[in-house]
Amino acid sequence: MNPLLQPWPWYVAGPLIGLTVPLLLIIGNKALGVSSSLRHICAACFPGKIPFFNYDWKKESWNLFFVGGIALGAVFCLAFMHNGEPVQLNPATIDALKAQGVQEFDELMPGDIFNWGNIASPVGLLFFVIGGFMIGFGTRYANGCTSGHSIMGLSTLQWPSLVATICFMAGGFIMTNLVLPHLMKWLLL
Amino acid sequence: MKNLKYLLIGMLFGIILVKSEVISWFRIQEMFRLESFHMYGVIGSAVITGMLGVLLIRKLGIRTISGEAIVLPKKPFTKGNIFGGLTFGLGWAITGACPGPLFAQVGSGFTVVIVTLLSAVAGTWVYGRFKEKLPH
Questions:
Q1: Residues forming beta bridges with residue A149, ordered by sequence position
Q2: Contact in structure between A130 and B116 (CB atoms under 8 Å)
Q3: Contacts for A113-116 with beta carbons within 8 Å, 24 or more apart?
Q4: pLDDT of residue B2
């Protein structure tokens, strides 16, 4: 049993994630945050005459290296730290998702939803296009995401981050329990 | 290249996100269905560790490796914390990812998530375009 190939429990992963806050501060006075990278991409590629995108994004380019690193880290895991086993979920979750039309539970993501074959279908419209749009629009409107508000903001005791985090969770509960089950039954079954 | 260190820290962050399975759409469903403690444990212990780190930096007057004073950014309150927060939460449950995990999902071989990322960039752009018209 190689521990590097097994999934890591929360009490190992959580503190390691938390340590990135002081690490980034000490290494270069940087505040942990991922969603800003989306703004920098807009500023670099299509700023137009929009004031929100006319700033010196190159000064913030460390953030683009950081998110590039996140993708590379995942590639590294896939190549060297992958045991290929399904996620050990609560059987109740599996049963509920099966009833909503999910059939593939053998990887980190449901392969029957997240594949290129769905790209031009209503499934793709919901899970990739609408879902992604809400992430980009919502995080910028909220001035941060789970890393910037929930980890960095709460770590530095900022009450607006607590408000944002509560709203993140509220939105998630509403979608998962009230909206998505109906949409999934309709789209996947 | 002074930015290479951030690439390395990003890689470590990405490895942790994958190995803790927080990039899994299934885990997000489990969290919002209140059927597992895993995600709450990860986020909760990350916040406590981050708080302790920041506390130590403050108490001991720790500076950056190049000797600068550490600046802790202020996040001002706006109504966007509520409206944007709710919008993001809805999207989080659909995609099974926050922005960090989106990059990790692509790297884990779910390349179709590139479309989700591009759509997130589009959402960010639309926010920037209509920022002045939105309540803040």
A1: none
A2: no
A3: A113/A188, A113/B25, A114/B25, A114/B105, A114/B110, A114/B112, A114/B113, A115/B112, A116/B111, A116/B112
A4: 86
Calculate the alpha carbon distances from A86 to A100, A128, B31, B42 in Å.
Answer: 19, 23, 17, 19
Q: What's this model's pTM, rounded to 2 decimal places?
A: 0.96
| Per-position b or e across B14-25, b if 16+ CB within 10 A of its CB | bbbbbbbbbbbb
Q: Which of A133, A151, A178, A187 to mutate to test the interface with B (most CBs of B within 10 A)?
A: A133
Query: ∠B68-B73-B76 over CA atoms, to 5°?
Result: 160
Residue that has been written with the tokens 């993708």 in this structure: A71
Closest chain B residue to the Cα of A53, Cα to Cα: B128
How far is it, in rounded angstroms, from Cα A17 to Cα B66? 23
Q: How far apart are the first and last CA of chain A?
A: 38
- How far is C-alpha A92 from the chain's CA centre? 24
Half-sphere exposure of B89 (CA within 13 A, CB side): 27
In the structure encoding, which two tokens stand for residue A76, read together? 């590294």
Report the chain B residue with the minimal C-alpha distance to residue A79.
B108
Would you say residue B126 has pLDDT above 90? yes
Angle made by CA atoms A96, A102, A108, in degrees to the nearest 5: 100
List of chain B residues whose C-beta atoms are within 8 Å of the C-beta of residue A131: 91, 94-95, 116, 119
- pLDDT of residue A1 exceeding 70: no
pLDDT tens-digit readout, B11-26: 999 999 999 999 999 9
Distance CA B96, CA B28 (A): 6
Please report the DSSP string for A43-74 in residue order. Answer: HHH--TT-GGG-S-GGGGTHHHHHHHHHHHHH
